[in-house]
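ingest -> validate -> predict -> emit
validate: passed (alphabet ok, no gaps, 252 aa)
predict: started
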Amino acid sequence: MTDAPAELVHLDVADGVATITLDSPHNRNALSKQLVTELADRLATADADDAVRVITLVSSGRVFCSGADLSEASTVPMHEGARAIVGVQRAIVAAGKPVVVVVEGAARAGGIGIVAAADVAIVAEDATFALTEVKLGLTPAVISLTVFPRLTPRGLALTALGGEVFTGTQAAEYGLVTLAVPADELAAKVDEVVGQLATGAPQGLRETKRLLSADLLARIDAGAEEMIELSARLFGSAEAREAMKAFLSRKK
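emit:
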């Protein structure tokens, strides 16, 4: 396996917009310990910067995020990994600035938790999503804190129980994302929406987001420990270990 680069998550600030870029192509932006730690750091830096009005979260390649880094399952304590993913979702929800997530290609499992945590999600119509946990003997435990409130009940049951791929267009119909547009119009639509958000006064943005996020933040704080325990228990089960072993061997 190739060594991970020195920095997996980049932060650039220009014209009141902080752009955070996931750049870990060697594992399809999987939620490794390094990536999650750096993402949390970049979010905190952007949120603390008075020059920033809006935070955008993008990926360097077409894959936005492939979910948990299963190759770390034997080295990173399960509770630690789950708690870190909860922490990133909470940081996005609690940020005093609107967070816009952009998905051009694929988002899977834990990556969908990040999409759901954002205030606005703009995706390509042919982007793909899947809550694949059920296939591995798992459940979308820690990401349920943000994902479950976003989706329609019927859309949620179909995607969480089926574990199958659904498109950006379907993601918009189910309530997971805000807008799905043709891929060749994605960049222009993101610029348009981010530009609109950036016209908000800092206090107006902060206080409006606080009102909008109150219920979701309370849900995260109330349910985090239970979901971390559930995630760790299932990851450590014999059934899930067998399924993950088979999955990793298929990828090689």
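The chain has nine helices and ten strands.
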